[in-house]
Design a protein that fits this description.
It is built from four helices and 15 strands. The chain has about 240 residues and is an alpha+beta fold. Strands 8-7-9-14-15 form a five-stranded antiparallel β-sheet. Strands 1, 2, 4 and 5 form a four-stranded antiparallel β-sheet that branches. The chain binds magnesium ion.
Length: about 240
């Protein structure tokens, strides 16, 4: 899990550096494929339920699961990169949202809120606490900043499969849900909308967008629960 996480962190950092005005989203997928190969890893997403790419690149009002295409990234866009890698049979999964050049003040606050929400969720993840504590930490961080958390898509357990039990909602009630135990590995992934939490799915049945057209940001880490602070497996 540590090795897979490390590969994901390195490739994600490389991809974030490639995001810029004039870049096509499918070029980022190509970089992702080449980088994974270099590290001897395979993509978690490619072929997953028929997903045709190794990377999801979701821009502005797109939340998750957009298939890389000829779409050209523009100055002022916010670009969410999400992907997973398999090393020795174990998965790592992470995401981040990058602002392209001078983004609007709202977009900047949104990205900060989503990144902060992930940190708040990780801070609540420890052995003996309940999953609801993680969910509510994420939700409170986001809602106290005037944004909303997506409800139809969640974080998840991760290990030999990319998506394992339990699911980790980004909203909840403290003290509820399964108890976390040392050694559990989870992917926490707040998806944060500037407007309402409702979503719509695109014609390709993959792309998920905000129902009201507002901007959305997404951060994710794969973590291991310990007796103290969780270990972030997808950090550099
Ligand atoms: Mg995930």
């Amino acid at each position: 899990m540590r090795r897979a996480g490390r590969v994901v962190a390195m490739v994600l950092s490389r991809l974030a550096g490639e995001v810029g005005p004039g870049v096509k989203t499918k070029e980022l997928d190509r970089v992702c494929v080449a980088e994974l190969k270099k590290h001897g890893a395979t993509a978690s997403f490619k072929g997953y339920r028929g997903f045709p790419a190794s990377l999801c690149v979701s821009v502005n009002n797109e939340i998750v699961h957009d298939i890389p295409s000829d779409r050209v990234i523009q100055e002022g866009d916010i670009v969410s990169l999400d992907f997973g890698a398999i090393v020795d049979g174990f998965h790592g999964d992470a995401a981040m949202t990058v602002g392209v050049g001078g983004v609007s003040p709202e977009a900047g606050r949104l990205i900060e809120a989503a990144e902060g929400a992930l940190a708040a969720g990780i801070g609540a993840a420890r052995s003996g606490a309940r999953l609801g504590d993680v969910s509510v930490a994420i939700q409170q961080h986001v809602e106290s900043r005037g944004f909303s958390v997506v409800r139809e898509y969640t974080g998840h357990g991760i290990g030999r499969d990319m998506h394992e039990e339990p699911s980790v909602p980004n909203f909840g009630v403290p003290g509820q849900g399964p108890v976390m135990l040392k050694g559990m590995t989870l992917a926490l992934e707040p998806m944060v909308n500037a407007g309402g939490w409702r979503t719509v799915v695109g014609d390709d049945h993959w792309l998920v967008m905000t129902a009201d057209g507002s901007l959305s940001a997404h951060f994710e880490h794969t973590i291991a629960v310990t007796d103290g602070e969780a270990e972030i497996l997808t950090a550099l």
